[in-house]
């Protein structure tokens, strides 16, 4: 297997990196690792985190061949990016692709979202400065369903992002959101080429509605990032944070699945990630990992899968627990975030 462009002799171990699968990221020049590192957990967004454990997680991921990192100002109100900026001082720039975002900011409801040209320009400058980078590989417009409209984003946010690309401050343009239909609408309406989409919590053991849109996104030559394979904690052993917008039916079903997994000698998170890693047409699966143990656990599932018994448990959960849900997403409740 060919080594990726992000391979750095002396930093990487060639035999370890060669285990990782790399995919051409849509029509871009990037070849991204099948597993990528989500840095939302480098903040309190998903509970406690540690400086040293985050650093070790990043180093282990990169040295294991992961070459795609994703963060945002929203993650801890710049804390995630601040940590990455510190860690990057000791890491070769050519060893990773950095993806970050504009559009979502503070905890206060009236300051959480701002898709204006002025704020977007400020955020691009802030992200570069905080991360300590000369350029960002992918800049995404964050959760566009919360903008006044898709047209507002196209008229106000997008021109500033294009300006940054033309100046060499960013390389590629992307968009993120929960309703996949809104991502499609944005790509259709955009007057400039959009390079990638990040869809979160829409292709996992609970909800696979992203599949309906994959043929369109592939036809457009988009890089496709599948994020939140554990549905933002619903499919984890700890369960979701109290801010999670899913309704009680979904939360209860996930608890039932969690308990059933444990009763049968396995973990729901392992089954859920095995399901995610076996979905076709995804260029990279973005996984929140803020400890080296989490990195190791995800690499183990990625490379080794699950046992036949665990596969039976997974199929039971999908067929007998999640299939009974009247609704397996929370688009109607998504505004609970704000």
UniProtKB/TrEMBL annotation:
<dbReference type="GO" id="GO:0005829">
    <property type="term" value="C:cytosol"/>
</dbReference>
<protein>
    <submittedName>
        <fullName>Aldo/keto reductase family</fullName>
    </submittedName>
</protein>
<dbReference type="InterPro" id="IPR020471">
    <property type="entry name" value="AKR"/>
</dbReference>
<dbReference type="InterPro" id="IPR023210">
    <property type="entry name" value="NADP_OxRdtase_dom"/>
</dbReference>
<dbReference type="Pfam" id="PF00248">
    <property type="entry name" value="Aldo_ket_red"/>
</dbReference>
<feature type="domain" description="NADP-dependent oxidoreductase">
    <location>
        <begin position="34"/>
        <end position="304"/>
    </location>
</feature>
<dbReference type="InterPro" id="IPR044479">
    <property type="entry name" value="LGALDH-like"/>
</dbReference>
<dbReference type="InterPro" id="IPR036812">
    <property type="entry name" value="NAD(P)_OxRdtase_dom_sf"/>
</dbReference>
<dbReference type="GO" id="GO:0010349">
    <property type="term" value="F:L-galactose dehydrogenase activity"/>
</dbReference>
């Amino acid at each position: 297997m060919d080594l990726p462009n992000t391979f750095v002799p002396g930093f990487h171990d060639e035999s370890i990196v060669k285990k990782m699968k790399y995919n051409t990221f849509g029509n871009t020049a990037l070849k991204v690792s099948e597993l990528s590192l989500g840095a939302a957990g480098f903040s309190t967004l998903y509970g406690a985190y540690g400086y040293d454990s985050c650093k070790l997680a990043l180093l282990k991921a990169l040295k294991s061949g992961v070459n795609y990192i994703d963060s945002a100002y929203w993650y801890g109100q710049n804390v995630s990016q601040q940590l990455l900026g510190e860690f990057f001082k000791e890491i070769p720039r050519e060893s990773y692709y950095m993806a970050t975002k504009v559009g979502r900011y503070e905890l206060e409801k009236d300051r959480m979202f701002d898709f204006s040209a002025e704020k977007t320009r400020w955020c691009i400058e802030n992200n570069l400065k905080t991360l300590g980078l000369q350029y960002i590989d992918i800049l995404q417009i964050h959760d566009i369903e919360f903008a006044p409209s898709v047209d507002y984003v196209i008229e106000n946010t997008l021109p500033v992002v294009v300006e940054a690309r033309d100046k060499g401050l960013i390389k590629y343009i992307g968009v993120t959101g929960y309703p996949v239909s809104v991502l499609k609408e944005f790509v259709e309406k955009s007057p400039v080429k959009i390079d990638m989409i990040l869809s979160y919590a829409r292709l996992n053991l609970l909800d696979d509605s992203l599949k309906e849109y994959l043929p369109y996104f592939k036809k457009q030559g988009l890089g496709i990032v599948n994020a939140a394979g554990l549905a933002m904690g619903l499919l984890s052993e700890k369960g979701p944070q109290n801010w999670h917008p899913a309704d009680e039916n979904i939360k209860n079903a996930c608890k039932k699945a969690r308990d059933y997994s444990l009763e049968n000698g396995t973990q729901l998170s392992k089954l859920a990630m095995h399901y995610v890693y076996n979905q076709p047409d995804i260029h990279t699966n973005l996984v929140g990992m803020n400890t080296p143990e989490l990195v190791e656990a995800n690499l183990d599932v990625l490379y080794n899968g699950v046992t036949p018994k665990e596969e039976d448990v997974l199929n039971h959960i999908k067929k007998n627990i999640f299939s009974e849900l009247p609704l397996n997403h929370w688009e109607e409740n998504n505004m609970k975030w704000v």
